[in-house]
Amino acid sequence: MIEDYKKLAELKKEYLAYEGSEVITWCSGCGNYGIQKAIERAVVLEGYKPKDVLFCYDIGCHGNGSDKMGKTEVYTLHGLHGRVLPVAAGAAVSNPNVKVIAAGGDGGTMSEGINHLVHTIRNDYPMIFILHNNENYGLTTGQASSTTRRGLAMNGSPDGVMMEPLNCSEFALNLGASFVARVYSGDVKHMTKVLRAALNHKGFAFVEVMQVCPTYNKATPVEWYEERSAPLKSTPKTRSDALKAARDMEKNMKLGVLYQDKKTVNFLDRLVNRKDVKSVPVDEVKRFNISELIKRFM
User: Fold this and answer.
1) Which of 92, 99, 153, 100 is nearest to 123 (CA)?
2) What whole-number distance in Å separates Cα of residue 141 and Cα of residue 137?
3) Residue 213, helix vs strand vs coil
4) How far apart are CA 61 and CA 104, in angstroms?
5) SS3 for 170?
6) C-alpha closest to that of 189 among 255, 245, 235, 132
7) pLDDT tens for residues 214-240?
8) In angstroms, how far is CA 160 from the centroid of its own chain?
9) What is the CA radius of gyration of the chain?
């Protein structure tokens, strides 16, 4: 890790290209600060120039990063609530020469947009998805989400959540995701390492970030995660072993790359009709004169 910091110092100009000029307005102690830094460090250390990356954000507290990432030379997209994945997938398929990094919260991803997550995993689109899991709807003042722990009283559920929470990494593994990782927002070094691994994955990389929310989720502060986090010594070799590692969310939370299929064949590489095509879809877009078609309806 020391070598990484030396390299970042050498790549100061490249690193600063991802630094935004806007004032960051997340709550003091919010996990988004660490996540933003880890993303910036990972892309710089992997040699990505701003023109080579598209950052796609969903609606939520994390989405405020869309205008904090870089200045004019960084490409960002701010989507609709729960709908960032289909937009990001479209971009990844249209131009595989650009690395697509999408982000969404536990609310929009595991409720409104859970159908999109299912099919993004199924199709194994060549992109990264960072799930910011702070176990509540933070942007709308702390309502319970589908990952909020049972019994916890939140805005909108003062008597406590009655259902068991969804385990996001376990969910992704059961759907057959080719890369699944879990990290903690307070450990920037580890996040950077895992995100670098995700950047080098050929298919869909699912990275769940267990994120501190100091304003609305008092049940899981920094101390809670630090007492329970257990970094993996190595990546489990089978999906069954990965599922076992992903299961415990209370006492012994395994962090790291939970599973990776390095032999996966992603969506683009499965397309038979593009087997011998050298260009990418975005280069094949042409202008068509539709005046004759319009005349039919006039």
Assistant:
1) 92
2) 7
3) coil
4) 9
5) helix
6) 255
7) 999 999 999 999 999 999 999 999 999
8) 28
9) 20
51 token code pair: 């023109």
Nearest to 245 by CA among 195, 155, 178, 182: 182
What is the amino acid identity at position 188?
V
Q: Which two tokens stand for residue 233?
A: 């010594």
pTM score: 0.93
- Total domains present in the chain: 1
Domain that holds residue 182: 2-295
d(C-alpha 172, C-alpha 162), whole Å: 23
Q: Which two tokens stand for residue 65?
A: 């990063």
Q: State both tokens at 198.
A: 């995700």
Copy the structure tokens of residue 10.
């050498």
Low-confidence ranges of the chain (pLDDT < 70): 1-2, 71-72
- Which residue from 95, 92, 107, 105 is spatially nearest to 143, judged by alpha carbons? 107
Q: Which residue has the tokens 């690395």?
A: 99
Interstrand relation of 229-231 and 99-105 (parallel, antiparallel or unpaired): unpaired
- 220 in Cβ contact with 147 (< 8 Å): no
CATH classification at residue 212: 3.40.50.970
